[in-house]
Amino acid sequence: MQFFKQRRKQTNKENVPAMEREHKQPEAVVLSADITQNIQTLQTIYENCCDVVFRSFRIGGEVNATILYIDGLVNVEQLNIAVLPSLMTKQAAEATTLASFLKESLPVSSLTTVQTVAECIEQLSSGSCVLLIDKQPEAVALSIAKWEKRSLEEPTGEGVIRGPREGFTESISTNLSLLRRKLKSPKLKTKAKTFGTYTQTTVVVTYIDGLASETLLEEVEVRLSRIDVDGIFETSYIEELIEDNPYSLFPQVINTERPDVVAANLLEGRVAILQDGTPFALIVPASFYSLLQSSEDYYQRHAISTMIRWLRYLFLLVSLLLPSLYVAVLTFHQEMVPTTLLLTMAASRELIPFPALVEALIMEIVFEALREAGVRLPKQAGAAVSIVGALVIGQAAVQAGIVSAPMIMVVALTGIASFTIPRYAAGIALRMLRFPMILLAGSLGLLGVMLGLLLILIHMATLRSFGVPYLSPMAPMQWEEMKDVLVRVPLWKQNKRPRLTGTKNRTRQAPNQKPDPLEGDDQLSKGGQS
């Protein structure tokens, strides 16, 4: 808790961002009762904007009015069929007051009164129409937004065998509706904010009232309030601006495309950050072990999920240490290898002109290049290029005497092991750490490998994610929360939520949830006898 208090002391009113002072909205002027003046002001602002439409007409054939909208953001069909004809009828002219007619007779779901030019710009950018009326010192925003958006699809980077197949899209309203379908309680709170001087990107902070700690919510608010940039296009921008240690290779924020993952983390007391224009949501705080968990761990039987988790931990070590151990053993510790295997490896390396260190670095760099090429190429050609390139280059390199066959196997096993890590950000961090580990192994042998591991562990132990230790609940040890780390205990044993930033409402289910079929069997047998 002391961490949050220290962070709050550092933020004060004098710390107003420079960009906020420099980029004061010049359009923040009050609308005039003269419609001509309002139109001239907005036309000046939207000069050389061919997609901004000014449509002038008379309400009921008597009152001058102009409706503004941005082509492509507005449902033009609804505007032409429902809105404009309703405003041009005689009923509009005979109405007692224009305001009452708009509220009672206009077929629009939402009406908002705007009083400044800046509010008009905000409504136009959000896809609303702005209705300017003569002799009225205010305008009316009509919510008839409609723009193209992608349909729901399964996330390609987080596929599961069993579980929901829907993923977030680039529409924040769609994403919030997907969350509402998972969490139907009104305690799911959503707070909208706008970031970016020019992009005006909508960002929504979501949490469950009564589960998320007040200290965590306040810390999220403080960090977001410090953001003052010209534009935000993806949640990675926000991630870089709110994480605890920006120089660390390890991700300190969870990013996901799956609504079920966000909902499950919200039920554990975490906070999610969604952004308009991207399907990726951020979840804070994060721990190292949460990055190694998949949503499918909770959709399979607990014994199977536990076995798969141990397999991930094993291949995590393989991905990080296998090339460095191979280099260390061949360079400094040949006595550790059985004689028969050592003779085989020596025969394969007889014509290789490079030491094991250079050989490993060459193959790792080539493998990373092939992987990157497979990602950037079109899907139809990406997989073929990766597989064919690996086969052709590997075979040619062995025949040319540049690398040995055992090194090809080591690099291939390392690449396969790195694919078992569920989170791409965690996997790429281990891929980057593999190179300094190889250099330490080639310089100091197994001593260098142990030194590298100690440095990594020390760094991870000092990391925090919104005040939560990165290696929690193992460091510091919290036995109650180990039920969902190295193993995945049955759901009927997970009675408590993890202790993230407090102990608020830790009970997640009633006790004695273990299934007991014997009682039901007794009742059935009695019913059969009767």
Automatic annotation (TrEMBL):
Q: Name one GO cellular component term.
A: membrane
Q: Polar residues bias: where? A: 502-512
The protein depicted here goes by the name Spore germination protein KA
Q: Locate the compositionally biased regions of type Basic residues.
A: 1-10
Among its keywords, does the record have Membrane? yes
Q: Which UniProt keywords apply?
A: Membrane, Transmembrane, Transmembrane helix
Family stated for the protein in its record: Belongs to the GerABKA family.
Q: Do you know which InterPro entries this protein is assigned to?
A: Spore_Ger, UPF0353/GerABKA_families
